[in-house]
Structure formats: structure tokens, C-alpha cells
Amino acid sequence: MNDEWSRCPICFEDYSLIHRPTTFVCGHSTCIDHTIGSQCIHYCPICRHPLRKEDERHVSYNLEEASRLFQLIKNTIDWSTIKLPSPTVINHEENNASAVTKRDEIYARQLQAELNRETANESSRKAQVSTRNQALPIEEIQTNLTVLERNQVRGHQKRCGHRCDLVSTRQCCLCSDRRPHNQGNMYAAYVDGRGMINRVTRDEYYCTTCKRR
User: Fold this and answer.
1) Tens of pLDDT, residues 98-112
2) pLDDT tens-digit series, residues 162-188
3) 20-42 burial, b if ≥16 CB within 10 A, otherwise e?
4) Which residues contact 201 (CB under 8 A, 6 or more apart)?
5) Is residue 132 situated within a structural domain?
6) 27: CATH
7) Does residue 117 lie in a domain region?
8) Domain end residue (candidates: 78, 111, 134)
9) Where are the alpha helices (DSSP H) in the chain?
10) Within-domain flag for 22
């Protein structure tokens, strides 16, 4: 066991209440007695970092306490009774770690493949939307509108069995019209500013749905 941190690198004494440690700027430690007096050191004994005289030296109480506990444990435990893991156990643990690593790699590849499929599907959907949104010829647009208007259900269902846009009547405009038919298909109607005229077709004032029939 490496216990160099718990002893002074100059006098090789364990840090204790008698040999109290101090820590330098470089992170290494020695007994504080080696940093004061006429025989004080001017360089770190480990890394040769220069030590300034104006730097104050303080006792590293944490290192002192850690060294004391370490010495207590080291002198109490019988290290010969501690058994290290056998090579079989180590190999078994390494095999388990290798299996876990392979499983993670397979899972990562599956996730990457799923991500690639989603990306391809999204690109395909965007391409289809872009194709549908392209400008159509005016003739095709008019044809599509005509088909939509033809297939669209309009008006309200009346008692006569027809559909009509009017709400207050029980029958459609055509079935409600009681005027007798004439050969010229011209009927009298009142026009604002002109009065009664005889130049109006029979379905002139029908609703839009009834005019389509």
C-alpha cells in the first residue's frame, strides 16, 4: 500500500502531533520544522518548486488527522487476512462488462437505424407535400372546383324530398311555385324601379340549390 503521502519526504517520519505537516503551493507536504529556523529548505523536496520566505507556514490539520487515522488502521488490520479477488472472478466480471458493452452497442445501432428510417420517412412526406403544393394549370383547378361543387351537399332536406337553401319553407322553391307553365317560359315578376315585367324566367328567384336541378 502506498503510504508516502502520510510521511515526510525528508525525515521519513509519519505525520503526527510531533511531526506536524505543512502543505506548499505546489501541493506537496513536509514537516513544518523543515521550513523554519536556520536549516529551512528553499525548494520543495518532491518537485523542486521554489519556496518564498514571505509565505506563511500553517499546519495542515486535515493531513495530520488523515495520517493519524491511516496509521491507526494500518496497525490494527491484519493485511495478510485480506484476500484479493481470484483471476476467475476478475475474468467473469470482465466478460460481464464486455457483454454489457456489446448489448449497448447493439441498442445504439438499433436506435440509429430507427432514426435513419424516421428521417427518410420525413423527407418522403415533405417531398410529397411539395409535389402536391406545386402550381396546377388553371384548367385543372377549374375542373377540380366544378367536381367539388357538384359533390358538395347543399341546402336543407324538405318534405317534398328535395333540398333547398331556404329555411322557413316546408317545400323547395320548385315545388312551392304554383304558377301555371307557359310555352315561352317567361313569367311576370316585380322589379324595383320598373314594376311588373313579363321577361323573367321561372327559376329567376329560386335558391341556388333549386336552380341546379
Assistant:
1) 766 777 788 788 888
2) 888 888 788 888 888 888 887 777 787
3) bbbbbeeeebbbbbbbeeeeeee
4) 185, 186, 187
5) no
6) 3.30.40.10
7) no
8) 78
9) 61-76, 87-132, 138-151, 173-176, 208-211
10) yes
28 sits in the region (left: phi over 0; alpha: psi -120 to 50; else beta) called: beta
Residues spanned by the domain of 70: 4-78
Residue carrying the nine cell digits 415533405 = 126
Number of domains in the chain: 2
At residue 90, does pLDDT exceed 70? no
The SS3 of residue 1 is: coil
Q: Taking a C-beta distance cutoff of 8 angstroms, is the pair 176, 189 a contact?
A: no
Q: What is the rounded CA–CA span in Å between residue 101 and residue 144?
A: 59
152, 165 contact by CB (below 8 A): no
Q: Which residues contact 179 (CB under 8 A, 6 or more apart)?
A: 187, 202
Euclidean distance between CA atoms 28 and 32, whole angstroms? 12
Q: Which amino acid is at 16?
A: S
Backbone angles phi, psi at 22, to 5 degrees: -135, 145
C-alpha cell at 128: 410529397
